[in-house]
Amino acid sequence: MKLLQIIYHSQSGASAQMARAAWQGAKAEQVVATRVMRVWDAGTSDLVQADAVLLVAAENSGALSGGMKDFLDRTFYPAINRGLVLPYALIISAGNDGRGAVRQAQRILSGYPFPPVAEPLILRGEVSCEHLKQSSQMGQAFAAGLEMGIY
Ligand SMILES: Cc1cc2nc3c(=O)[nH]c(=O)nc-3n(C[C@H](O)[C@H](O)[C@H](O)COP(=O)(O)O)c2cc1C
Q1: Does the Cβ of 50 fall within 6 Å of ligand 1?
Q2: Closest atom of ligand 1 relative to the 13 alpha carbon
Q3: pLDDT tens digit string along 66-125?
Q4: Contacts of 125 (CB under 8 A, 6+ apart)
Q5: Could you identify the atom of ligand 1 that is nearest to the CA of residue 12?
Q6: Ramachandran region, residue 48 (left: φ > 0; alpha: ψ -120 to 50; beta: rest)
Q7: Does the Cβ of 19 fall within 6 Å of ligand 1?
Q8: Percent of the chain having pLDDT more than 90?
Q9: For residue 11, which atom of ligand 1 is closest to its CA?
């Protein structure tokens, strides 16, 4: 069974809600296993076990949140050394922008190199039902593509 690993960083809970919604959407695709983890609990071994990764984090000070940056910094060389190439998707929670976080994440992930499976999803403002719906849809679409062997 293929594994979709969802890894998130959240300070005030917004990205955590989006990660949970993505997880619930992905679970609809029962042929794919889905696991959701905080960045602080995740490491290279979790990437090694995965077939794909969905990253969920906030924009902080025009950049990717520090927790997610720390995760990527910790796993960068170990992933390269293992030749890991995982398809990825990205959800960014932001107050009113989010583009700085997306740019930084894309730049870092292109170095692994991990290929994107979709345009990054930027969700601005307070968490809403629409945000959770879009997160769920992204999780489900990613899992469905994984199941079909598209990536
Ligand atoms: C220290 C800090 C810096 C932030 N900087 C930005 C920013 O540069 N651009 C933006 O759109 N939102 C910014 N925000 C707002 C957060 O991105 C937004 O509240 C997000 O939903 C928080 O997600 P989280 O609860 O998962 O951490 C900032 C929030 C904090 C606490």
Answers
A1: no
A2: 25
A3: 999 999 999 999 999 999 999 999 999 999 999 999 999 999 999 999 999 999 999 999
A4: 95, 96
A5: 25
A6: alpha
A7: no
A8: 98
A9: 27
CATH number of the domain at 2-148, please? 3.40.50.360
- Residue whose C-alpha is closest to residue 71's, from 94, 91, 44: 44
Structure tokens at 101: 């976080």
Q: Where are the domains of the chain?
A: 2-148
One-letter amino acid for residue 132 of the chain:
L
Centroid of ligand 1 to alpha carbon of 59 (angstroms): 5
Owner of token pair 């969802």: 6
- The two structure tokens encoding residue 127: 């968490």
pLDDT, tens only, 23-77:
999 999 989 999 999 999 999 999 999 999 999 999 999 999 999 999 999 999 9
pTM value is: 0.98
Burial 50-89 (b: 16+ CB within 10 A, else e): bebbbbbbbbbeeebbbbbbebbeebeeebeeeebebbbb
